[in-house]
Predict the 3D structure of the following.
Amino acid sequence: MQLKDQSRDELEQLLIAWGQPPYRAAQLWHWMYRKSVRDFEEMTDLPVDLRRQLSQRARLDACWVRQRREDPVAGTVKYAMALSDGLVVEAVALRYRDGVTACLSSQAGCRMGCSFCASGKSWERQLTSGEIIDQFLRIGEDLGGRRSSRVVLMGTGEPLDNYEAVLQAVRRLHDGTGMSYRSFTISTCGLVPGILKLAAEQLPINLAVSLHAVDDALRQRLMPRAARLARVDRLVAACMVYAESSGRRVTFEYLLLDGVNDRVEDARRLADLAGRVRAHVNLIPFNAIPGSPYRRSPPGRVAAFGARLREAGVAFTVRRELGAGIDAACGQLRQRGSGSEADVGQRSQ
């Protein structure tokens, strides 16, 4: 049994069934989420017989660091995390002046099949809530106990295609670590039913929508499955509902591809869509992957694109590159497989 797949109430019921008082669940929860321990013997305020029982019947580790690469300039760390069945997912620690952002995966592979993305080249399975949570905890452990102050579900996979596990992970990290819901961002390629379901939760979670094209025909070419599921106008309407329900500004992610979606006319139409939602736009430089037909837009065109957004009164940023030299884009490290840097961590429990 993986304990991080259990809610606090479920842990309490489990321990009661084992003949333990309910308050033991709070102690166990504290060791798991506040102390991030990986060995039941470290839980010194639990009785010896309970620690022995937990060791025999439960697991603390859902993943562990198999490979680690650090950018010596930016300080970004890319992890290949091994799961109990041997699959590998990716996570990233992004260091900023005001803290660390943990970028977590929600699936092993991705079913969306976006043409520019390394993650969509394979599909294995959904991650459990515990496997998502443990990526966060393993990052903190690797950084010497420095806990991330923000979480973005922008790693491998489509978070809203694994809705229940992702939301459970967010809720448990919120409850277990004390992080505000405003510290969490869920990224989606535009699954409208999931956006509306999340809106109904009325939680102040940030939403980032991978738009990447301003018309249905181009979006169908770049993001075939996402585009089939919802037209651009319907996606924008769902974003308006989400912004109203959550009280949070939606972000439109826009990957700039040379000669594909980076014309001034594209910028004008993007400004119109963003204006309807009062969305922030994040312009993203393309990280090349082997065999890709796409190239990143040249700096001059990026500047012209941004100038058009600025003229239209749209708030935007150009994403800083904090790990291009270590394959920090989604799916790149996993695609390359393990090499001489593998096995920097090992499984315990």
The chain has twelve helices and twelve strands. The longest strand covers residues 88-96. The radius of gyration is 21 Å.
